[in-house]
């Protein structure tokens, strides 16, 4: 058992691009579900649009990185509108089914051979980060040297991705916080609790829901962009499992809280990394009666069980307030 | 934020409908001619995910290499396509050492040239090594191809078959939704479970296939009963809302799915007698498995219809779907009926799983997950919560999925069904057989 490596790997996830990306996407989901009560099961689609929008704009159309990112966000906003128009007037579970279907359509369109020229189909995209890294403010270090200390050691390129991601996350959290304490946010929470009551006050519930869907979707797409900044776009990562992991994170941290989704993302990834390192080693050492591949699968079974337990026993999450009931019956 | 009138919002809905139609049209447009123009890889196999196993070869005609010929490989639920390079060379990577069918798209060969032999497809198997060189011999000649109407007919039969087996799972899910309000995300795993029980019964316990199917039915019933008694009934009594229940079912789906992977790994397994030799029936080829599959589905659907329409429990089930409070007040034991519904749904899902394993063909740990969205599409199309709506929805989904490959590439066939779902929701949100007041 190499405890040092296990600990280093686990602590590394405290501040890794993937943690930041999941935190952003879960924050977007918090706007949808936590504040507006919208059952969006298509977050993977929003993330895919952000990632592909960015990567394709750079690779196929030669845009600079900031414009390319903007394209990704605009695509997500457009997707939210297309999803919202048919479903936001219907009962909540219709939105759930349509969003999960739409996200799957998006994934299939990015994976098919038909648009291979742009999407490179099942192989995914890579090599689009030159433009982004050319804006790197951190000077390149001599060979063998790293920024940071202990488990958090990064090359200049990695550090730039993380700093950029943390800045975006901070911005997103601030925007969500400011929105939710504004009159607009209060109407949104009102819609979550009792749609008819808000309607009786003369508010256009449809428009509010639509705006929330767009705002959350754009934050989710931001997460999708951070997700692919370190290396490559892999189409098989945008399955429904990604959406379900985001829901686990959201409900773990607290659906209608500002910092809950970020806390959930950190805990989720650190626990996953801990188990991912620990269980196979325990299996190899003969402490667990299974192969190390089985030990690697075991942690995902635990994710499912954890999601069930959270929803049953602590639906408000770690940071949530029981009085603020997100699950309207 | 100003309040808009209903008439002012209408055009937006039609705009989206229009956009959707445009998207569908674009897909149609891109499909047939443009798909064939996908670029050849720079080196053989360079356009695919590289695995340990591959088939490769050179296509030449009269000693000259033939570039840009489309080759397709299929087997065990895997599909891939490639083009020959300028030197006529090609390579197709496959995930495992198993039997595959290689097909040459003869429309991409020079005019008047075909692959020698009975057809442009052949079955391939690996020898002792991880690669196999396949020599294709071309000759001059004409191939009598199937006309469009015949192809359509074949696909319609395939779609009917798929729709019927999908209906088994979807009717169960619709009954659960109708009686408990739960959108059961773990239904896909109940489907996988049926196939898995059959696999274990026929390979590990060496039982004959019919006994394996009976084992699947019993296993499905036990799973349905266990899920209701161990999880859903306690949660209902705890007073969890439908959204909470739905997310619990997502957690259950993840846990079950990865438990399956834990035990059987990532491999694809074949049930006994998969891919048999087809029988020629007039213009169409069917295997006896297709025929048995359709027969089993129809018998099961008729049994469910009899149960719902003619038995007391079935009437009680429909009464609960209609109005649970009134049903409980008039002396129906709601918990008992729901338990029976779960058992019926478990049996139907397990049966569907066995048939799905033959239809795909192959059994994988995540095969149910692939079906889950189609189940949802079917029950939403039919109108949430009505079993006969789910049957109708399933047939539509099955036929759309199978016939759409005539126009759109096969890797988009599931997307086609989901687009249809969204388009129908736009014009008829309550579904085909749903009632209007179900809307919120």
TrEMBL record, chain A:
Q: Which domain of life is it from?
A: Bacteria
**Pfam families, A to Z:** BPD_transp_2 (PF02653)
One GO cellular component term noted in the UniProt record for this chain: plasma membrane
Q: Which CDD domains match?
A: TM_PBP1_LivM_like
Asked if the keyword Isomerase belongs to this entry, the reply reads: no
Major site of localization recorded for this protein: membrane
Work out whether the entry's keyword set contains Transmembrane helix.
yes
PANTHER family, from UniProt?
A: HIGH-AFFINITY BRANCHED-CHAIN AMINO ACID TRANSPORT PROTEIN BRAE (PTHR30482:SF10), HIGH-AFFINITY BRANCHED-CHAIN AMINO ACID TRANSPORT SYSTEM PERMEASE (PTHR30482)
Keywords from the UniProt entry: Cell membrane, Membrane, Transmembrane, Transmembrane helix
Named from the GO MF annotations, one term is: branched-chain amino acid transmembrane transporter activity
This chain belongs to the protein called Amino acid/amide ABC transporter membrane protein 2, HAAT family
The membrane-topology field of this record reads: Multi-pass membrane protein
- Provide the transmembrane region boundaries: 12-31, 38-59, 65-85, 92-110, 157-179, 212-234, 240-259, 293-313
What are the boundaries of the signal sequence?
none
Q: Where in the cell is it found?
A: Cell membrane
UniProtKB/TrEMBL annotation, chain B:
Topology relative to the lipid bilayer, per the entry, is:
Multi-pass membrane protein
Source organism's superkingdom? Bacteria
Q: A single GO molecular function, which one?
A: L-leucine transmembrane transporter activity
Task: Identify the keywords attached in UniProt to this record, alphabetized.
Answer: Amino-acid transport, Cell inner membrane, Cell membrane, Membrane, Signal, Transmembrane, Transmembrane helix, Transport
User: Which positions, given as ranges, span the membrane?
Assistant: 152-178, 190-207, 213-232, 239-264, 284-309, 340-359, 371-400, 412-431
Signal peptide segment: 1-38
Q: Name one GO cellular component term.
A: plasma membrane
Name its cellular compartments: Cell membrane
Q: Which family does it belong to?
A: Belongs to the binding-protein-dependent transport system permease family. LivHM subfamily.
Name listed for the protein in its UniProt record: Amino acid/amide ABC transporter membrane protein 1, HAAT family
> Which organism was this protein described from?
Microbacterium saccharophilum
Taxonomy, top ranks, is:
Bacteria, Bacillati, Actinomycetota, Actinomycetes, Micrococcales
């Amino acid at each position: 058992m190499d405890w040092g490596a296990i600990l280093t790997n686990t602590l590394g996830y405290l501040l890794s691009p993937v943690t930041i990306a999941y935190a952003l996407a879960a924050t977007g989901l918090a706007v949808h579900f936590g504040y507006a009560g919208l059952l969006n099961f298509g977050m993977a689609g929003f993330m895919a649009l952000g990632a592909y929008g960015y990567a394709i704009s750079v690779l196929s159309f030669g845009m600079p990185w900031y414009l390319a990112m903007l394209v990704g966000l605009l695509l997500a906003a457009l997707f939210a509108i297309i999803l919202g128009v048919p479903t936001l007037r219907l009962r909540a579970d219709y939105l759930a089914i349509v969003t999960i279907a739409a996200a799957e359509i998006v994934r299939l369109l990015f994976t098919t051979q038909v648009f291979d020229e742009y999407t490179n189909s099942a192989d995914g995209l890579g090599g689009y980060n030159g433009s982004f890294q050319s804006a790197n403010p951190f000077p390149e270090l001599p060979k063998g040297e790293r920024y940071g200390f202990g488990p958090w050691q990064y090359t200049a390129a990695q550090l730039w991705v993380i700093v950029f991601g943390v800045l975006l996350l901070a911005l997103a959290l601030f925007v969500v916080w400011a929105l939710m304490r504004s009159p607009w946010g209060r109407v949104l929470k009102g819609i979550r609790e009792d749609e008819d009551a808000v309607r009786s006050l003369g508010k256009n519930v449809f428009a509010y829901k639509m705006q929330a869907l767009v705002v959350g979707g754009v934050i989710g797409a931001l997460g999708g962009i951070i997700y692919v900044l370190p290396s490559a776009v892999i189409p098989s990562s945008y399955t429904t499992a990604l959406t379900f992991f985001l829901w686990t994170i959201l409900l773990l941290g607290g659906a209608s809280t500002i910092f809950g989704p970020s806390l959930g993302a950190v805990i989720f990834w650190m626990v996953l990394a801990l188990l991912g390192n620990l269980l196979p080693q325990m299996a190899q050492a003969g402490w667990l009666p299974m192969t190390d591949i089985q030990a690697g699968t075991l942690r995902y079974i635990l994710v499912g069980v954890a999601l069930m337990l959270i929803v049953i026993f602590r639906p408000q999450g770690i940071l949530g307030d029981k009085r603020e009931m997100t699950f309207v019956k | 934020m100003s309040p808009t009138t209903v008439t002012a919002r209408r055009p937006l809905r039609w705009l989206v409908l229009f956009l959707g139609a445009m998207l569908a049209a674009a897909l149609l447009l891109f499909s047939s001619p443009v798909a064939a123009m996908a670029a050849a890889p720079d080196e053989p196999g360079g356009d695919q995910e590289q695995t340990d196993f591959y088939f490769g070869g050179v296509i030449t005609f009269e000693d000259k290499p033939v570039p840009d010929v489309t080759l397709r490989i299929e087997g065990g639920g895997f599909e891939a396509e490639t083009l020959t390079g300028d030197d006529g060379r090609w390579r197709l990577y496959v995930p495992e050492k198993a039997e595959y069918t290689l097909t040459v798209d003869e429309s991409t060969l020079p005019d008047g040239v075909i692959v020698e032999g009975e057809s442009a497809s052949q079955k391939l198997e690996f020898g002792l090594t991880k690669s196999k060189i396949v020599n294709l011999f071309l000759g001059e000649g004409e191939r009598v191809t199937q006309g469009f109407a015949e192809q359509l007919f074949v696909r319609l039969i395939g779609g009917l078959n798929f729709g019927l087996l999908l209906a088994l799972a979807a009717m169960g899910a619709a009954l659960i939704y109708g009686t408990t309000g739960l959108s059961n995300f773990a239904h896909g795993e109940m489907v996988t479970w049926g196939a898995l029980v059959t696999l274990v019964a026929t390979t590990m316990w060496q039982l004959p296939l019919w006994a394996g199917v009976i084992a699947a039915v019993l296993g499905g019933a036990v799973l349905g009963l266990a899920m209701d008694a161990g999880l859903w009934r306690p949660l209902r009594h705890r007073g969890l809302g439908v959204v909470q229940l739905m997310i619990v079912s997502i957690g259950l789906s993840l846990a079950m799915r990865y438990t399956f992977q834990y035990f059987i790994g990532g491999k694809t397994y074949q049930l006994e007698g998969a891919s048999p030799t087809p029988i020629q029936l007039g213009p169409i080829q069917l295997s006896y498995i297709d025929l048995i599959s359709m027969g089993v589905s129809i018998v099961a659907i008729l049994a469910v219809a009899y149960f719902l329409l003619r038995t007391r429990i079935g009437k009680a089930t429909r009464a609960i779907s209609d109005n649970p409070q009134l049903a409980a007040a008039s002396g129906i034991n709601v918990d008992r009926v729901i338990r029976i519904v779960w058992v019926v749904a478990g049996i139907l899902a397990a049966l569907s799983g066995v048939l799905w394993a033959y239809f795909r063909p192959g059994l994988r740990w995540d095969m149910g997950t692939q079906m889950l969205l189609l189940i949802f599409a079917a029950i939403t199309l039919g109108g949430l919560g009505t079993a006969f709506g789910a049957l109708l929805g399933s047939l539509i989904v099955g036929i759309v999925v199978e016939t759409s490959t005539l126009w759109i590439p096969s890797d988009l066939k599931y997307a086609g069904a989901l687009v249809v779902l969204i388009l129908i929701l736009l014009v008829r949100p309550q579904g085909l057989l749903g009632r209007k007041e179900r809307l919120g």
